[in-house]
Amino acid sequence: MDEKNWHLIKLFRVASTFRVTLDSMAEENRSLDIWPEIEKAEKENRRELVLQGSAVDKKIQSSGGLHARLYSLSLLNYLEISQCPSLHEIHENIRHLSHLQSLILCRNKLTAVPKSIGDLKAIKVLDLSVNQLQALPEEICALSELNTLNVSCNSITALPDGLSKCVKLASINVSKNALSRLPDDLWCSNLELLSTIIASENAIEELSSEVHNLPALKVLDLSSNKLQELPSELADCPKLKETNFKGNKLKDKRLEKMVNGCQTKSVLDYLRAGGRGKGKGKQQDGEVSEKLDCGRNISKKKGGAKQKGKKEAEDVDELNWMVVRVLHVSKAPTAVTVKVSAGVKDVRPYIVCCIVKGMNLRQGNALKRFLVAQTKLHDEICAKRTTATIATHDLGLLKVPLLYDARPRDTLKIVPLGRKEMRAAELLELLQQEADELRKQKKRQNVSGLHKYLQLLDGKDLYPCLVDAEDHVVSFPPITNSERTKIKRSTQELFLEVTSSTSLQICKDVMDALIIKMAELNKLTFDVKEDVGSDEETDVISDHPAEDPASPELTVVQVKVVDVDGNLKVVYPSKTDLMSDVSNLTVIR
């Protein structure tokens, strides 16, 4: 074969190979057609993109990951990809989204974060919660604009050193991981904006005495760890208002009782005194506060040291005491039952309910404290309402029996809180308009309030709702409750409802947390003895005002949830519910 023919054969082989490659690429492109959400974001030059839920998860599964065109949306400043269990990794090309300010990648199954995330210099909010991460790249420490970091509910064993470089960091949540320590530079004075540290449910063995270097620290949660001591320097944090060290086996048993039942100020006073009067903390005006009785301000007397110690211990025990009594449905004179229709199975299938009696909402700020606590539970254990939603009703305004149903958006009607009656479709459209207007006014892409939950119903033909005996919708989770059953100061019995699209156990866990918080708040209201307030709407408490309770004890009445044929699905609380390790809570069954 001459040289000329040899070259021709070689060129033919190259051309054939190139054609096969092009054919393969064309076939691949056909199988990876651009997702409509991405195409819309491209055409409209959108700054915000949310990819969420089962429909997106199926695309990820069939494509073997996120579509490559996603990483070309360079104008995005808000990107959320959540509730996609088929998502295991993010490509290095995420670096091209250089304008991102919020990156939400929660409730997936990510096993790693690319190092290129350190190139996203504009990032202010980074949420990697509820994944399968075991480590974070050191490049995260290069995010100088980072304000909020949430990596909770993973399997992270250590945080990277260098977080002190994130000088604008204000909030960090590393709860429910496998941390044995927090990095030393987390307590660096460079972090002058750091106000919230949530590190509960880890295996942390020590709280650094350098914690006082954080001038803006307001909230510190290290509950359910392996702490044995608390540094007295904690009392020197000038703005610290809320601490949680419950679930730690402290050497100082009196301090352990205090952290389980007292307000933060009392705990800090005790530490400021050095614990049992050792005087290790900084003193103010040459005197150490001696108010160690969890808010009653009982000062120590000068003589009888032994009797003083005994009296203070008794005060702490008394103030720690909380009782929740469970009333079984068989013993309830008028049992409440919730029937569940078959239609909710593919919408929001899980619900647990109960009735709470003895909650005093009449005095002072009791109602406000309860509503604030509910909001906090929504933000934390309910993961911004993505895992579960709480609804509270005035039992006296409910017409039983109740039906948990799924209805078309154009036929479902509700009187939303603070609004007139409207169809669900109208409400969502109105909320979306308000969200868009808020974006324009504040020149931002992410919004607060109810608007952030609108996307949870995207793609749903039916909406979940709780309906009373007169066919009035009293709850539309996860969006809103009805004005018809709104709780007020005059409410004496509450009907509690927790729904979820994730699991029944999450509903139970959230309900446990809610009832424990109600017991704590009711004890606080009982101890503080504030003036009785009035409902703004009526300026009266009720036609028959309730007497001041003799104790802060709560009674929880079981509620059965059954299917359309009357078969039991769940009853709450059961024998395995409310199994709290809170040492100052007694549950009587």
TrEMBL record:
Protein name: B3/B4 tRNA-binding domain-containing protein
UniProt xrefs under InterPro entries: B3/B4_tRNA-bd (IPR005146), Leu-rich_rpt (IPR001611), Leu-rich_rpt_typical-subtyp (IPR003591), LRR_dom_sf (IPR032675), LRR_R13L4/SHOC2-like (IPR055414), Phe-tRNA-ligase_IIc_bsu (IPR045060), Phe-tRNA_synthase-like_B3/B4 (IPR020825)
Pfam families: LRR_1, LRR_14
Domain B3/B4 tRNA-binding: 347-523
Organism from which the protein derives: Sinocyclocheilus anshuiensis
GN (gene name): lrrc47
Lineage: superkingdom: Eukaryota
Coiled-coil stretches: 421-448
PROSITE patterns: LRR
GO molecular function, one term: phenylalanine-tRNA ligase activity
GO biological process: phenylalanyl-tRNA aminoacylation
Keywords: Coiled coil, Leucine-rich repeat, Repeat
